[in-house]
Each structure stands twice: as C-alpha cells, then as structure tokens.
Design a protein that fits this description.
By secondary structure, the protein is of the alpha/beta class. The protein is 12% helix and 21% strand. The chain contains one helix and four strands. It has a four-stranded parallel sheet, covered by helices on one side. Strand 1, helix 1 and strand 2 form a beta-alpha-beta unit. The longest helix is centred in the N-terminal third of the chain and has 12 residues. It is globular and about 40 Å long.
Length: 97
Amino acid sequence: QTKGANVRVLNASFGGAAFTQSFLDSINALNTSGILFVAAAGNIDNGTIEPNNDLVPQFPAGFNAPNILSVASTNQVDNVSTFSHFGKTSVDRSAWR
C-alpha cells in the first residue's frame, strides 16, 4: 500500500471478450474506495466477431459495476471511429482520440 496516494481514477486502455469474476470483484473493491474505473470500449481486430458491446460485451468495459465509465473512440467529426467498439446502452461516453 502506498501511503499518501490519493487515487481517484484508473484508466484501462485494454480489454477482451473473457469475463473474469476476480477482476469484477477487484473493480467493485475500487468502487468501495471511491475510485472511478475508465475502460476502453474495445478496438476491432481480426478476432472481433461483433463490435457492438450491447450484443457481445468486452471486458473490463462490459462489467456491471457502478464505477465503470466505458468510452468509445470518435473521429474529428464526432462519429465513432472505424476501429472502435460501441454500444447504445453499454458504452457511456465517446471521445476523440
């Protein structure tokens, strides 16, 4: 434990399709400590079956936890980037990379 650290936000620019209960438990523990967990919605790659996170969730962005803020990528004209996952109900915000 680091004494004096005042962490309020963690950024998670990674993800995948596998649900892990221990990871969700850790994120819920962060919530108990008042820490926001910002997670990338996901990036489309050769293994992507479905980029809509409402249909096929990506984790950690897809965990059901109150402190997760799921973020998709947008382009200069505020459209979802061609490489970004998205989701009408599962992605909270979008931001230009």
